[in-house]
Amino acid sequence: MSKTQEIEDRLTAAFPDGEVLVVDDSESHRGHAGYQEGGESHFNVRIRSKDFEGKNRLARHRAVHAALGPELIARIHALALDLDV
Question: For the chain, what is the mean pLDDT?
Fold first, then answer.
C-alpha cells in the first residue's frame, strides 16, 4: 500500500464524519532536502471535521499525528496540515 493511501485510510478512520484530502506534493520538492525518488516524502493534508471544534491548532495537529502514529510519521519527511471544522 502506498503512503498516500495509508495516510488517507488512517485519517478517514480517525475522522469518519470529516472530509479528508491527501495530496502527494513530493515532486514540487525535487532537489530539496528530504526528497525521495519516486515521491511520497512530502504531503499536504486537508481535513474538515467536527472533531476539531473547540480545539486549538496544536490540539488539532496532535490529533492528526496520533491518528497517523509514530511509525508512519517517521516515514514522512514533510506534512503540511490544513485543519478546520
Answer: 93
